[in-house]
Specification:
Layout: E1 5-7, H1 18-22, H2 34-45, E2 51-54, H3 61-74, E3 77-79, E4 84-85, H4 91-97, H5 100-107, H6 110-114, E5 123-129, H7 136-151, E6 157-162, E7 169-175, E8 183-185, H8 188-204, H9 214-217, H10 226-234, H11 238-253, H12 263-285, H13 289-301, H14 308-321
Parallel strand pairs: 1-8
Antiparallel strand pairs: 2-5, 3-4, 3-6, 5-7, 6-7
Helix pairs in contact: 2-13, 7-8, 11-14, 12-13
């Protein structure tokens, strides 16, 4: 029987669709919901943004076992049926309980191997995190509620709370194929929906949390692949060294100014600022003057739009002049 595919792209627009506010015609009425007003207020106040990262996923049973063993060495594992694995070495029992051997044999066919295709993931590895100072117990409760709502009675999963890296975070390992044979595919829209719901669950437990897209917040730093990010943190990233060398060559061959390759970035920023201003104006008309003022101050504080490449060039120029780069 062929497996059904679960497509979670239903929520294809963000809750706070800022750019659309600025595109409305003259005199067109903009009706704001209480959820939009609350979301805008949180964003303008700089409420901590939730993070959900797909940190990969194992394609072999050995890979799943290795990741589960890594998690259980640092904290107890909690499974979808409520069991807490306090004894080390029990993680491998999940492999049998989840019937991963069946999925591995069924999905990694000889035809796929001959065609050079990678086998599909057996599990997805997710990380839910919040900034330092967030109560770990409440974060754990919010993630548990999230996992129950999204995966309960469908996809088997295990989770572990870690607090040893300065900020609390929860690892969740989700079986990619459900008990009904439905495959979980994670798209950008899926993560958008998940972030919004996760932020709400945190607020339900009394933790201020928000889920706003980077461009709307005025942040444009690019997300790097986990391997590049970890290597850069160690100072051992060949990708970042090559990029730095390319920027240095551009600076030597130019007029000493940072590269200007951000026309699309500037256009996006203009749309975002226009949308925020339209939103503030509508809030004032609706009597939400305090929130409107907070939104206008938020727009005024936005840092200048620039790419990672430009930021690197600015840092190089500042270092060459013997002073620290500007914060903004």
């Amino acid at each position: 029987m062929p497996k059904r595919v679960v497509d979670l792209r239903w929520r294809d627009r963000p809750l706070l669709n800022i750019a659309s506010y600025g595109r409305r015609g003259p005199g067109e009425r903009l009706v704001l919901t209480s959820a939009e007003i609350a979301h805008a207020s949180r964003t303008a106040r700089g409420v901590p943004e939730v993070m959900i990262k797909v940190s990969g996923g194992a394609r072999t049973i050995r890979g799943v076992a290795s990741h589960l063993e890594y998690l259980e060495k640092r904290a107890d594992l909690e499974t979808d049926d409520g069991a807490v694995l306090t004894q080390k070495g029990l993680a491998r029992e999940l492999l049998k309980d989840w019937d991963l051997e069946v999925d591995e044999r069924r999905r990694h066919t000889q035809r796929g191997i001959a065609a050079g295709r990678k086998p599909p993931k057996l599990v997805h590895n997710l990380v839910f995190s919040m900034p330092k100072g967030t109560p770990p117990d409440k974060l754990h409760k919010a993630v548990k509620k999230f996992a129950t709502e999204k995966f309960g009675a469908q996809h088997r999963y295990a989770m572990a709370l870690h607090t040893d890296q300065g900020h609390p975070h929860v690892h969740v390992v989700v079986k990619a194929v459900s008990e009904r044979g439905e495959r979980l595919n994670i798209y950008k829209a899926t993560l958008r929906e998940w972030r919004q719901d996760f932020a709400q669950y945190l607020r339900d437990y009394g933790i201020e949390a928000n889920a706003t897209e980077r461009a709307v917040r005025g942040s444009y730093h690019q997300n790097r692949k986990p391997g590049i990010y970890r290597a850069a943190a160690r100072g051992d990233s060949s990708f970042m060294r090559e990029r730095a060398a390319a920027v240095a060559r551009e600076l030597r061959g130019g007029d000493g100014q940072a590269p200007t390759e951000h026309s699309r970035l500037i256009q996006t920023r203009r749309e975002v600022e226009r949308g925020w201003c339209a939103l503030a104006e509508r809030m004032e008309q609706a009597g939400e003057r305090e929130v409107a003022g907070r939104v206008r101050r938020f727009v005024d504080r936005m840092s200048r739009a620039r790419t990672d490449r430009e930021l690197m060039a600015e840092q190089m120029l500042a270092a060459a002049r013997g002073r620290a780069p500007p914060v903004r």
